[in-house]
TrEMBL record:
It is found in: Cell inner membrane; Cell membrane. Keywords: Cell inner membrane, Cell membrane, Membrane, Transmembrane, Transmembrane helix, Transport. Belongs to the binding-protein-dependent transport system permease family. Residues 51-234, 319-519 form the ABC transmembrane type-1 domain. Pfam families: BPD_transp_1. This is Iron ABC transporter permease. It comes from Prauserella halophila. It is a multi-pass membrane protein. PROSITE patterns: ABC_TM1. InterPro entries: MetI-like (IPR000515), MetI-like_sf (IPR035906). It comes from the Bacteria.
Length: 532
């Protein structure tokens, strides 16, 4: 019965993934292959130039994020300062900001754009991934081994390099793989800052699919991108399993102390990174208030209209569309994500090797939507979903479905480690007293995971609000979301359009900052240990 229950739980996320991800993607790839030209596109030097630039900027962004995130991880893990809690909350803000907002924020700082700006913008997003993932493990490491090395004459750097860094290696590899995945599939940032001069696989797939209707070329690029994504997921999965087995852990409260000696330099570097993360946000706010005649609120007032005719709705109507579609997407993602997490926990505790292997396969498959082109998925919807009853291509649910596909992996990553940490003896005790499996989950797992579930819902909601890749392709002109409206505004000439776009970005940023604070207050104790 238990095995049948796991299969039943896994059926919903598997069907969700199959219908809303695998089917559209395979349909587009098959359409491109059928039309011919995929082999020719793969043989073109331009394809591999795009792949090289995509991987190169992703690698550079990952390196910057890791270098910037390590001193912040030390601050969060080892330093007892009142400001550390505020730093932890603030770090989440860049990660949940919509890509359009970040693109315009860096454009306000460096109007010319360029490769360096793209790299910094992608790293800006992902410092939190490194700092919170590595810092979460670092806070729980037993520091007595490091202290022993110091007492034997090792310098602080030598003790860190030979004792602490090897223990942190699984978390570092896991976070670096996630950052590389996000950076290699970056869309909004490259679209805004690349200025047509610099293109990644993601933006080129968009160009070939939407503007050139070159399906073979888009299919070839999707295959290259998928290969890179699978590689990053494999590395991340291996590192994640190593991290779960890593290190004798201690309560985090015993590891933090006031900085002394050279540790103050590391703390200074951490606050320098935080100040650097604050700079684009401040630039965005100032740009939204700057007009030709000085400071003013022209852009905010213009949200009540449609700019200089750039939109078919007002800015506030676009904002309401964003809130509604994000709510629908979050509800759907929570149902699918929680069912998937429960199934993965049950599969991991199963005695059979086949069940565990099936769980690991499902876990990896559910992460794939984070790395496959949103344009490929969106165009696949238009090709395939007419075969379903009701023709979802014209349904207002199309955008929420696409957004839920992006949110589900994030929900799983937040909920799964908490469910895995629940002591199985509590479940066994409840079952011994006669509770059915559903009642066991309701009375044991749910209360213990409630805070993480609330945090996952809030996190998914804010990510859905800012989703731009698939939404830019699927949103109807009469019902755009706010990120789509912002892109429309900045793509049209006119000072009022630009001011309105920056004002809308500032409002989106304030909403995401508020939700980020709520998420951090809701997070479960020790939630940073495990998976980001």
């Amino acid at each position: 019965m238990r095995g049948l229950g796991v299969v039943a739980l896994a059926a919903v996320p598997t069907a969700f993934l199959g219908v809303l991800f695998a089917w559209p993607v395979v349909a587009i790839l098959r359409l491109g292959v059928t039309d011919g030209g995929v082999a020719a596109a793969l043989a073109q030097a331009q394809t591999w130039d795009l792949a090289a630039f995509t991987l190169g900027q992703a690698a550079a962004s990952t390196a910057v994020a890791v270098l910037a995130g390590m001193p912040v991880a030390f601050l969060l893990a080892r330093v007892r300062l009142r400001a550390a809690g505020w730093v932890r909350t603030f770090l989440l803000v860049p990660f949940v900001l919509p890509t359009v907002v970040v693109g315009l924020a860096f454009k306000a700082l460096w109007p010319g754009g360029g490769v360096a700006t793209i790299v910094l913008a992608n790293a800006f997003f992902n410092v939190a991934v490194v700092a919170r993932t590595v810092g979460g493990l670092w806070a729980h490491l037993d520091r007595r081994a490091e202290d022993a090395a110091r007492s034997l004459g090792a310098s602080p750097w030598h003790a860190f390099r030979t004792v602490t860094l090897p223990a942190l290696a699984p978390a570092l590899a896991s976070s670096a793989a996630v950052v590389f995945l996000f950076c290699s599939t970056s869309f909004g940032v490259v679209l805004i800052l690349g200025g047509g001069r610099y293109r990644t696989l993601e933006t080129e797939i968009y160009l070939r699919t939407v503007e050139l209707l070159d399906l073979p070329g888009a299919a070839a690029l999707s295959l290259v991108q998928l290969a890179a994504v699978v590689g990053a997921l494999v590395v991340g999965g291996v590192a994640r399993r190593r991290r779960e087995r890593a290190a004798p852990l201690r309560a985090p409260v015993t590891t933090a102390r006031r900085p002394a000696g050279r540790e103050r330099w590391v703390v200074g570097a951490a606050f320098t990174v935080v100040a650097g993360l604050l700079a684009p946000i401040v630039a965005l706010v100032l740009r939204s208030l700057s007009t030709r005649d000085g400071w003013g609120l022209d852009g905010y007032r213009a949200l009540a209209g449609s700019g200089d005719g750039a939109l078919s709705v007002t800015g506030w109507e676009a904002a309401l569309n964003s809130l509604q579609t994000a709510f629908d997407a979050t509800m759907l993602a929570m149902i699918v994500g929680v069912l998937a997490a429960v199934a993965l926990v049950a599969a991991g505790r199963a005695r059979g090797r086949g069940a565990r292997l099936a769980g690991e396969t499902l876990d990896a498959a559910l992460m794939l939507p984070l790395g496959v082109s949103a344009v490929t998925v969106g165009f696949g919807y238009l090709v395939t979903l007419d075969a379903l009853p009701g023709d979802l291509r014209t349904s207002p649910l199309l955008v929420p479905l696409a957004q839920a596909l992006v949110v589900v992996p994030l929900v799983i990553r937040m909920v799964l480690p908490v469910l895995r940490s629940v002591d199985d003896r509590l479940r066994q005790a409840a079952a011994t007293l006669g509770a059915a499996p559903v009642r066991v989950w309701w009375t044991v797992d749910l209360p213990l995971a409630a805070r993480s579930l609330a945090a996952a819902a809030a996190f998914g909601y804010v990510v859905a609000i800012g989703e731009f890749g698939a939404t830019s392709f699927l949103a109807r002109p009469a019902a755009p979301t706010l990120p789509v409206a912002i892109n429309e505004l900045i793509s049209r000439p006119g000072e009022l359009n630009t001011q309105t776009a920056y004002a809308a970005c500032t409002l989106l940023m304030l909403v995401t900052a508020g939700v980020a604070a709520v998420i951090d207050r809701l997070r479960a104790p020790h939630a940073d240990v495990g998976e980001f």
